[in-house]
Design a protein that fits this description.
By secondary structure, the protein is of the alpha+beta class. It has helices spanning about 90-95, 105-110, 135-145, 160-170, 240-250, and strands at about 10-15, 25-30, 30-40, 45, 70-80, 115-125, 125, 150, 175-180, 190-195, 200-210, 215-225, 230-235, 275-285, 300-305.
Length: about 325
Amino acid sequence: MELEPIYPFEPTSSYNVPEGEEWVSQIKWDGVRVLTYFDGEVVKLFNRKLNERTSIFPELTNIKSYTEAKSFILDGEVIALDKNGKPSFHEVMRRDGIRRLDRVSHVMKSVPIYYMIFDIVFFNGDWINNEPLKKRLEILSKIIKQNDQVQLVPTQSDGKALYEVCKQHDLEGIVAKNLNSQYILNGKTPDWQKIKNYKDVIAVIGAVTYRSNIVNSILIGLYDEQEQLWFIGHVGTGKLTVKEWGDLTKVVESIRIDTKPFINQPERVKEVQWLKPLLTVKVQFIDWPEGHSLRQPSIQAFVNQDPKTCKLKQ
């Protein structure tokens, strides 16, 4: 029986950690969501948008190294670490963003990845998504043998304490989950709540500036419900390498335009090159005051997302 990929259950955003005996919390890893499908014969990996990642993360297909289950759908996060040993979205996108499969074996050596498993949806021929989270976690703990590359995400009963740990170590945040919750396919309810330590957004690049003929900053925006692109910030710092700035310079050459793509007027438009709004990027920021642009934005990584889905209300 071939397992069809599913849209995973998503958490809602919250600013407060829920309390009560029915709540547990887990670290929110700054990685990419990946579900592993094993029908008893074939292993496949898909991301949250149902794009296959089996060839991108081949080291995760050796399922016999961590379980003897006959069939399953596992839900988790693929992460990569920076030089300080912290989860880095920029690093994991060096793997997830590979488009030429002949480069995978080379990048595997320079960017090792880890699979952080936090749920199971299908097990030994049966859908268990309607079982309470507590039971699903019990099944996971029995069938997964952790190793250096595959880990179970620890669960904590004190969400506030876990959130404080995230702040101390500058991690992305936590996800609080109701132990009685079902796993709703293609669903989103307050039974799972993400509480972020810092804020980020996936936005559209609408313009760039240059220094010595190399792109050195980007102007980003988000679409409203009328599909108008609103400028939200000017970003010149982040985790991009010199090579990545150079690669961006080459890419934007083919999408230069003469007219402003934003509906509003950006700040500091001197010597700006307008672009067709085709490229998307994940940006971290400190705050977003109403009526103003992002405060202290920082580029994390380029992402492959439909620009029209980059909305003001994310």
